[in-house]
């Protein structure tokens, strides 16, 4: 198939290389010239395992990158993969979706044949039908004989996105028009995964509901973990036992300092916003965020209890990315932790194997170290914020500390003299 992908960000770029790997001809449309140049010369603009291999195989052969929308009219399917960041009060900012839809509509003006617009961007239920479709239909002058619309959400995890794309748990295809859904289903026919067909709005809601459910699972586990901590119970043992119930599953029961990333906080906020707009009171969703906002303060409070006043004390923060395997610091729990440490006057020395540059853009006035041992030298306390596997082997480095108060926000250290936020 001939496929255009609009938006070369995280979801867009991964989708491009994987769709090329599935045998399709891909045109990626990206308005940022810097990204166009980088991707065309085989350099991925994000860090993602397996991405560079696929990119080097397909770029210039079955994958092309451009900043103009000309190729859209030659495509069987156009995937919209632009970002939908959080706007004020938790609402979703769909300005990039609007711009992409307008450009797609303009480029399809007076086109013959039939093609499908498939939306991968995370958008609130109703957006495909009530916002995207009307814009594209109006700008193109086409009707449902020439254009179909599909909501096809992505469930990729950062750090495992290529693997997740090629081995999905399910493929969700939401459409009001059967032909449109069939065409998108055909694009995935080489993948061995169950396909669920539904309406566009249900498909859009499945993405929010899945992320809300996983975020809720983490916050509930963390709340139970906080109780376990007070009672001297190992919450990891508890969650291991809980996860053995197949109705619960062992996934997403790693208790700790909370969830970050580009999806969970934003999507739960958007769902709260939607519920309130509909006149509902989403008490569980609000609590999911509240627990998540409290965990970083809790770990700083623990440090305070162990050390006393933090003013002027050197504190090492190990790990800055929102999880291991990525340089992404969006909504990383390290951000509220560092800000709280700073507010209490602590001198923060931070180390991360990958995310230093990204965190510098968020927080510039702390010391960044090129090695864990530099952050730990003469520190009075240490907070472990990301489960980087290299932290597991830290040992003698801790003997450089002035006082050994080590608190883990993620369970990763094998070093004995430490405690966890919830264990
Ligand atoms: C998530 C969803 O998993 C994915 O399906 C969706 O498409 C995008 O959002 P991602 O943000 O990449 O993916 O990361 P994920 O691995 O889900 O972790 C999110 C956050 O939750 C991280 O901060 C992680 O440390 C935290 N987490 C995860 C926990 O605290 N405990 C767990 O048990 C699992």
Structure described in brief:
With 423 residues, the protein is an alpha/beta fold. Helices cover 41% and strands 14% of the residues. The protein has an 8-stranded mixed beta sheet, with helices on both faces.
Beta strands, count: 14
Low-confidence stretches: none
Residues in helix, %? 40-55%
H/E element string? EHEHHEEHEHEHEHEHHHHEHEHEHEEE
For the biggest sheet, the summary is: 8 strands, mixed
Average pLDDT for all residues: 97
Distance between the termini: 52 Å
Q: Structural class of the secondary structure composition?
A: alpha/beta
Q: Which labels suit this protein?
A:
six-stranded parallel sheet; 14 helices; eight-stranded mixed sheet; binds uridine-5'-diphosphate-xylopyranose; single chain; alpha/beta; elongated; 423 residues
Written description of the protein model:
The protein has 423 residues and is an alpha/beta fold. The protein is 41% helix and 14% strand. The chain contains 14 helices and 14 strands. It has helices spanning 10-21, 33-40, 51-58, 95-107, 127-140, 161-166, 178-187, 200-231, 235-243, 264-277, 283-307, 334-343, 356-362, 372-376, and strands at 2-6, 25-29, 63-66, 77-80, 115-119, 147-151, 171-175, 195-198, 314-318, 347-351, 367-368, 381-384, 405-408, 419-420. Strands 3-2-1-4-5-6-7-8 form an eight-stranded mixed sheet, sandwiched between helices. A six-stranded parallel sheet has the order 11-10-9-12-13-14. Helix 12 (334-343) links the parallel strand 9 and strand 10. Helix 4 (95-107) runs parallel beside helix 5 (127-140) and helix 10 packs across helix 11. The chain is elongated and about 75 Å long. The relative contact order is 0.09. Uridine-5'-diphosphate-xylopyranose binds at residues 154-158, 211, 214, 218, 252-254, 256, 259-261, 263-264, 322-323.
